[in-house]
Hints:
Structural class: alpha/beta
Low-confidence stretches: 47-60, 189-194, 222-235, 259-264
Order of helices and strands: HEHEEHEHEHEHHEHEEHHEHEHEHHEEHE
Strand content: 15-25%
Bound molecules: guanosine-5'-diphosphate
Radius of gyration: 24 Å
Organism: Streptomyces jeddahensis
Binding site for GTP 2: 205-212, 252-256, 317-320
Distance between the termini: 13 Å
Family: Belongs to the TRAFAC class TrmE-Era-EngA-EngB-Septin-like GTPase superfamily. EngA (Der) GTPase family.
Number of strands: 15
Subunit structure: Associates with the 50S ribosomal subunit.
Function: GTPase that plays an essential role in the late steps of ribosome biogenesis.
Mean pLDDT: 83
Amino acid sequence: AAEEGFDIEDVEGAIEAAGHGPLPVLAVIGRPNVGKSTLVNRIIGRREAVVEDKPGVTRDRVTYEAEWAGRRFKVVDTGGWEQDVLGIDASVAAQAEYAIEAADAVVFVVDSTVGATDTDEAVVRLLRKAGKPVVLCANKVDGPSGEADAAALWSLGLGEPHPVSALHGRGTGDMLDAVLEALPEAPAQTFGTAVGGPRRIALIGRPNVGKSSLLNKVANEERVVVNELAGTTRDPVDEIIELGGKTWKFVDTAGIRKRVHLQQGADYYASLRTAAAVEKAEVAVVLIDASETISVQDQRIVTMAVEAGRALVLAYNKWDTLDEERRYYLEREIETELGQVAWAPRVNVSARTGRHMEKLVPAIETALEGWETRVPTGRLNAFLGELVASHPHPIRGGKQPRILFGTQAGTKPPRFVLFASGFIEHGYRRFVERRLREEFGFEGTPIHISVRVRE
Ligand code: GDP
Ligand code: GDP
């Protein structure tokens, strides 16, 4: 490294920064209008205010990356959910349940100018049951005169209330320090304690693609599906299923089984549920209704899994209904709409007839294998050396930026750091990724490539 002009500390720092595993997840919960979205904006340092969103306008983005005091984590924003047909208490409770389930730690926001309400007390009971670390945010303490209101929230029994003004930023630093103390370094539930346990699968997809049918099929049981309201029954959230001679954990299946018909906020609710499932899983099986045109919503769900860095399998369902013409157009659509995930293993299934169910497990295993692949540094650099020699970067401004060496900083998904003598263009990075895939496989996994340029 030194002879290539990189300081060894630079190199080590870059590898460490790129090699981080999955980030721990912080959920921000609370009643409507207590200031959750304002607080999330503050935490992630976002300029545009989500609070300006019009009521009823659905947001599909619910998780964001944030950094405080050099530590990175994800924030789940539950502020986008309008009160719906379930009524305020049930909505807050259901929303909080999903968010708590997906989180490693929780910020519970209370409006200190209002004080603790019955709904807040109900959320406290949920939090107790979940046993996750909680930081209590006493929001809307815009000045010293609000401190007494904040102190009154000791009564919730959640420990010290942190007086904060999400609007003006007052107290948020101290609160974030407490958040970092509460957050584990890595998301324990997915990658720490679960090592050696069953692999975790998130079965996701837009409504009516056949998730519930597929789950029934693989679980080999017929369930009676009724119109239940969220919160009226407590299904087990995860389901252990034997498949292909192995045990798998399908995460967050409660949301699949419950037929919740919400009016307002239904899309948002579905997004939150999908995000929660993806966070808890190692591999996402995205179910797509092959009988219908691939939609933006399908693409968003695929993107969610890719951005979360999970292994990915695409399952095209309802294959039993396809005629020749539809099959022709489907292939065209897959090329144009899902071309960016052409690396994902694909299965054409029918949850109704059971067609190709046996292909699901091999596809999942392939994806997990790609996700965990580690390329030895020697092999990687031999590959990079040949690549750079045979396909050099285009000359720019009389100079030719060159990839000097590289290393794989992490897995799950594979993360690479490349060290270069100058700026490496986007097109060339894509080319490197393509060649990496050709050479080493990485079927079913996103790969991250970061480039460090010599000063
Ligand atoms: P959410 O529904 O919990 O996401 O709440 P929002 O973030 O949308 O905030 C609800 C309202 O409270 C908005 O009008 C905010 O401007 C206001 N608000 C949020 N935080 C504060 C604060 O710290 N002080 C004051 N005075 N108002 C706030
Ligand atoms: P979910 O909302 O994704 O859980 O979808 P469901 O499992 O409730 O399925 C929605 C509808 O599609 C139901 O009427 C199912 O019977 C039907 N369906 C699911 N899978 C298949 C399939 O493979 N073939 C056909 N023809 N219909 C299916």
